[in-house]
């Protein structure tokens, strides 16, 4: 933890803890969540408490503390299998997992609070964020750290489905830049709005595996298993709105982002 930061440890759904954390804050970045589509399928009540009750707690605490703006970390999972790519923010949502439902509900709470109270909100729909510090040792780990871990050990990665499902992978530094842009943009432009935070280009899992294999210089044949429940086929953002309103544009190339991520894992 940065020595300039004050660390408050507690439950995101606990009112007293969150109010303590909000004291003296101008802009709150609400990143806390019970993540993972699969975990939400297995534990929907836990996911609901953290992601919906937790978001309500954040909004109430922010309002009570006089916070100017809350920037909320939403998810592209709210689109579900929309079948429209690139996907605009106006695309009808069709969540396919409890996780996606909670993100959609939390977005709605952000909008309502901004419309009813003197509290600005901006929601960013993240698209498959990756980069250093992702954990490969969790049952719900994201695909990139899992693939890197397998390749570095010389094991065959497991691919759920045929591997042709695609994702708009977004490097973590670009997501940080999107949050900073959402914090500083004029409220008249962005208040109560939702934006795609992504680069606008998708890659299949097989393409991802090929790029990682080239970096590590290991090329095993993947093991294919059944598709995971709640997963979507294609995900690619239309990032024109966030570029127009917030001045944000993703900078990291796919290949460079993967190289930096692999280098971090190698140096752990």
The rough form would be described as: globular
Percent of sequence in beta strands: 5-15%
What is the strand arrangement across the widest sheet?
A: 1-2-3-8
- By CATH, the superfamily comes out as NAD(P)-binding Rossmann-like Domain
Under the CATH scheme, the architecture is 3-Layer(aba) Sandwich
What structural class should be given to the helix and strand makeup? alpha/beta
Question: What is the percent of helical residues?
Answer: 40-55%
Main beta sheet strand tally, sense and closure? 4 strands, parallel
Could you state the order of secondary-structure elements as H and E? HEHHEHEEHEEEHHEEHEHH
Radius of gyration: 19 Å
Q: Assign the CATH class.
A: Alpha Beta
Total number of helical segments?
A: 10
Mean pLDDT value: 95
| Structural domain count | 1
**Overall number of strands:** 10
Q: Gap between N and C termini, in Å?
A: 17 Å
Unreliable residue stretches: none
Q: Which topology does CATH recognise?
A: Rossmann fold
């Amino acid at each position: 933890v940065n020595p300039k930061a004050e660390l408050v440890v507690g439950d995101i759904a606990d009112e007293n803890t969150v109010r303590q954390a909000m004291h003296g804050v101008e802009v709150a970045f609400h990143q806390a969540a019970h993540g993972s589509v699969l975990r939400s399928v297995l534990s929907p009540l836990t996911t609901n408490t953290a992601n919906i009750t937790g978001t309500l707690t954040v909004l109430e605490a922010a309002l009570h503390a006089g916070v100017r703006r809350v920037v909320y970390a939403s998810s592209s999972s709210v689109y579900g299998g929309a079948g429209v790519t690139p996907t605009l923010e106006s695309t009808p949502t069709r969540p396919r997992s409890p996780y996606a439902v909670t993100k959609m509900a939390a977005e709605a709470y952000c909008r309502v609070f901004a419309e009813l109270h003197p509290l600005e909100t901006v929601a960013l729909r993240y698209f498959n964020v990756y980069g250093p510090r992702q954990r490969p040792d969790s049952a719900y780990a994201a695909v990139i750290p899992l693939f890197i871990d397998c390749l570095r050990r010389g094991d065959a990665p497991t691919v759920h489905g045929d591997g042709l499902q695609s994702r708009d992978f977004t490097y973590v530094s670009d997501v940080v830049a999107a949050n900073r842009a959402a914090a500083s943009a004029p409220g008249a432009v962005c208040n109560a709005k939702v934006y795609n935070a992504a680069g606008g280009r998708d890659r299949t899992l097989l393409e991802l595996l090929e790029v990682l294999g080239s970096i590590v210089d290991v090329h095993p044949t993947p093991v294919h298993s059944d598709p995971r429940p709640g997963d979507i086929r294609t995900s690619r953002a239309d990032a024109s709105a966030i570029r127009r309103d917030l001045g944000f544009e993703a900078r990291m190339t796919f290949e460079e982002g993967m190289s930096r991520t692999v280098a971090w894992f190698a140096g752990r």
